[in-house]
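Worked example 2:
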Amino acid sequence: MPNSDHKLYDIAIIGAGPAGCAAALGLGQSGLRVALIDKAEFPRGKTCGDAIPGPAIKALENAFPFFEKEFQKLEKRQHITSSRIMLTKGRFIDYQWSWPAYNIKREIFDAFLFSLVKKYTNIDILTGWPVDKIIPGKTHVIKSEKTGQSLQAKMIIASDGAHSIAEKCIQNLIPTAHKQVFAVRAYFEGINLYTTSNFFWVDKKYLPGYFWAFPLPDGEFNVGFGMKIGRDGKASLNMKGVLEEFIQSEKMSHIFSESRQLTDTSGAFIPIGGKKLSYSGDGYLLAGDSAHLADPLQGHGIDKAVVSGLLAAHHSMNCFKENDFSEAFNISYDMMIRSGIEKELRKNRQRQLILSNFPFLLSFYSLIKK
């Protein structure tokens, strides 16, 4: 790790998850001085469903010629061809995916993307470097109390997750009112389900929320429950208790009767999108969970994180080409997010609200689909 005390960079990417690594790969051969910063050391885990949607893989393949070859070497992945939504009275809805999708533990997938940054770029990587404070300016000052170091950057790409320190330091410039989901999950083995499909259960008792079971390699399953939290920032239910109740219920006995829980149940916030937000300002761009780009209907956000990271890299290069880092210039980044990602999220937010208020529509759809 280079000595980064007061070092000046063109771009600092804060957060080395899918959005940050996508941005780093996009800037890897730009000729700009770039730092990729993360509070953790890799590999590191993340509480989520471990689903890697097809659009995420497709975006990375289209952006980087080396990606497909490297991805084929990744062994710990489960190919998923469909999703099944389980309803009442034995009804269900199946969706077949047109693009290859995979379930991969985030500890593995994030470390894989991080390894590509190390292999295919010459940017500086600072791990174990938690950002505690950002002093905005024409040149931002980024400080880490833990390391006792600081650095400067003309541009920040903030991709440091649901509790973004970058967002907090510039929150006077962006809306803070946004919806979040809280999700809990644990790993199991011995579950009686197909291993090529992701399963969801919708129960009106637990709306607006749903349960899932996603197959992983070596006979493991990621099992969880997620739902919107209230305006007070708290879930209205005991999430871990609800998940345990669901697993032990009579209707699930044929699926979990021989199962064994492998890990403790852990929880995390998911900052969902679907409302018009600001994604940039003077000298900064927000990407991934920092920009609240998780899908309000399906819950995942990796595909949106990857795409936003790639867009942030592209726009940042334009900033340096034009020597313009202003809020006015960066509005074009917002327009790209709004016309693509946000537009889709708004539609799915509307669908989520409709299904939460009228859950019988899913059952009706399952009947007419047959």
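The longest strand covers residues 92-103. The two ends are 58 Å apart (CA to CA).
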